[in-house]
Design a protein that fits this description.
It is globular and about 50 Å long. The protein has a single domain, classed as q2cbj1_9rhob like domain (Jelly Rolls). It is built from eleven helices and eleven strands. The chain is an alpha+beta fold. The structure holds 2-oxoglutaric acid (AKG). 2-oxoglutaric acid binds next to strand 5, strand 9 and strand 10.
Length: 313
C-alpha cells in the first residue's frame, strides 16, 4: 500500500530533494560563503534585517485585530481560550494563530529579498512559498502556562533522507526567554547515531530530556530564522511580559506536476483558508472566525503568483 502523502503548510516536507553544493567563489544573491557554511554545518541560520520593520508592525497589528486583542493591554490577551478538540478557537496554547492569507502576510511572502535568500539556499529560481500561519506566543501569567515543545515535522524513519528548510520571521525583537524558536544543534550534528539508539516507531515529539543543549535563538524584528527539517525544534515558553509575534515562512522547489498539491494551494488562496485536503477534519480554519470575513483577498505581484503556483515559472 502506498503511504498517504502528508502536506505541511501547502508543501511536501518529505519530497525527494537535494541541497546544492557551492564553492567559496560562488556568487550568492544575499547570503555569503560563511553563512552558507554555517547553515550546512549547524542546520540553522539567522538572516538579519530581511523584512522592513514597518511590514512587521503591520502584521502584528493585523494579528491583534484578527484575535480581537489590544497589543499593549495584557488584560485583553487571555480572554481567548487555547484551542483544543472540544473548544476550537483561532489560537493554540503555543500561540499558533490560524491566519494564512492576509495582505500583510503575503507582502512578506512575496518580498523579493526573501525570495533571493531561498534561491541561494536551494540553488534554483523555481520556488513555492509555504502557506503557513502566524504566532502570538503569550507570556506565562494570568494562569496561562505554556511549557514549550520540541519536535520534528516528519516521521523519524524519514528524517535522514529529508532535505527541507523551515523558517520563522520575527515580527518583534525576541531575546532568550521570550517565547521564540528553540532548537538543538548538537543533536542535529549527531542525528544519525542518536536515531540508531531510538526504539522503532518512536514519536516525533521530543518530550524527554536529552543530553544536548537546547538553544533559544535571539532575533530582532525583521530577521528570518531558518532551520533544517532534520533539526529538533519548537516554540519556547515565554517568560517575559511581552507577547512574541512571528510569521512562519519558508520556500521550497516548486512541484506543479504534483497536481493535487497545486490544487490545494490555489484553493487555499481562493477561499482564504488553511491549505488542506478537502474533508480533512483534523485541520482547517479553527473556530468560526473566517479569514474571508476578516478581509479581502490579497493582491499578488507577478513574483507572488509564481510563488503561489498560480503562474508557472
Ligand atoms: O515557534 C517557533 O518558532 C517554532 C515553530 C515550530 O515548531 C514549527 O514551525 O514546526
Amino acid at each position: 500500500m502506498t503511504p498517504e502523502i502528508r502536506y505541511s503548510a501547502g508543501t511536501r516536507y518529505e519530497a525527494p530533494r537535494v541541497f546544492p553544493e557551492y564553492s567559496p567563489d560562488h556568487e550568492f544573491r544575499v547570503l555569503n560563503w560563511e553563512d552558507w557554511r554555517f547553515w550546512r554545518d549547524n542546520g540553522y541560520l539567522v538572516i538579519r534585517d530581511l523584512i522592513p520593520k514597518e511590514q512587521c508592525e503591520e502584521l502584528i497589528k493585523v494579528t491583534c485585530d484578527y484575535l480581537g486583542v489590544e497589543r499593549d493591554n495584557p488584560d485583553s490577551w487571555y480572554n481567548i481560550t487555547p484551542r483544543s478538540a472540544e473548544d476550537p478557537t483561532p489560537k493554540s496554547i503555543a500561540g499558533m494563530t490560524e491566519l494564512y492569507h492576509h495582505q500583510a502576510i503575503w507582502n512578506n511572502r512575496q518580498f523579493p529579498k526573501v525570495y533571493d535568500v531561498f534561491c541561494d539556499l536551494w540553488g534554483t529560481e523555481k520556488l513555492w512559498v509555504t502557506i503557513d500561519r502566524v504566532n502570538m506566543n503569550l507570556p506565562n501569567q494570568n494562569g496561562w502556562d505554556f511549557g514549550g515543545f520540541l519536535h520534528w515535522d516528519v516521521e523519524l524513519d524519514q528524517l535522514l533522507a529529508t532535505r527541507n528548510i523551515q523558517g520563522v520571521l520575527s515580527l518583534n525583537d525576541n531575546d532568550t526567554g521570550k517565547g521564540g524558536l528553540q532548537i538543538i544543534p548538537d543533536l542535529f550534528k549527531q542525528l544519525e547515531s542518536w536515531l540508531e539508539e531510538q526504539p522503532k516507531g518512536r514519536s516525533r515529539m521530543l518530550e524527554e530530556k536529552v543530553d544536548f543543549e537546547v538553544i533559544n535563538v535571539p532575533s530582532k524584528a525583521g530577521d528570518l530564522l531558518i532551520w533544517d527539517t532534520r533539526m529538533a525544534h519548537g516554540t519556547s515558553p515565554n517568560r517575559s511580559t511581552v507577547p512574541r509575534f512571528a510569521q512562519y515562512l519558508s520556500m521550497c522547489p516548486a512541484e506543479p506536476e504534483h497536481t493535487e498539491l497545486l490544487e490545494i494551494r490555489l484553493e487555499s488562496f481562493a477561499n482564504q483558508t488553511r491549505p488542506e485536503k478537502s474533508g480533512n477534519k483534523i485541520s482547517g480554519m479553527a473556530g468560526s472566525r473566517k479569514e474571508s470575513d476578516f478581509g479581502p483577498k490579497a493582491e499578488l505581484t507577478e513574483l507572488g503568483k509564481q510563488l503561489l503556483g498560480a503562474q508557472p515559472w
